[in-house]
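INTERNAL AUDIT FORM
Audit reference: QA-55
Scope: verify that the stored structure record matches its stored sequence.
Auditor: D.O.
Record contents follow.
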Amino acid sequence: MQTPRFAEQVSAYEAGDRENPPPEGCIVCTGSSIMRGWMTVAEDMAPMPVINRAFGGSQTWEVLHYMDRIVMPYKPRVILYYCGSNDLGNDRSGQDTFEGFAEFVRRVHLDLPKTLILYMSINRVVPKQRVWHELDKANDLVRDLCEGDDRLIFIDVNPCLFDEAGNMREGYFGEDQVHLWPPAYRAFAECVRPILEGAWARVNPPAP
């Protein structure tokens, strides 16, 4: 049995929530460092109520481990999810990565059957080219799952990161060519915001 990491980060979120409780029924972002690095997501999605509870270089099994502490207590109406690249980087298969997300969905909908879950595609970055076939498999399996359930939405963010010739966009990536700089998150915001607005409107219909 592996020992989950990032307990300190998770405890810090909980401590902050005790001081400043977020609104129940908000939009929760969860997942790994790509999501955690989106420091402006709440500002980018305002006035929708968004909190970011992603942590470290987490793998899917760690998101599952901590979800009862930093996802479910908020009773989110919408979840924005990015995780899986670290699974693949640690020799887990695309099938394993997909099954982890499917388990996340199952657990959310067990308690919150109306919650919408938006899945941001795993980034197809050049340093992880050796696992692209498994990465594509994970994304394809999740896309199929989303097509069969109107509470799930697949968002392909990979086109944001590459130009028309298939090259990684300049100024979007840090030195490791994996983690992202602000221009990449601005591109994500343009892609994600209209989809998130549509989801938020679905779970908050106007009063008659």
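Auditor finding: record pair retrieved intact. The first helix runs from residue 7 to 19.
Action required: none
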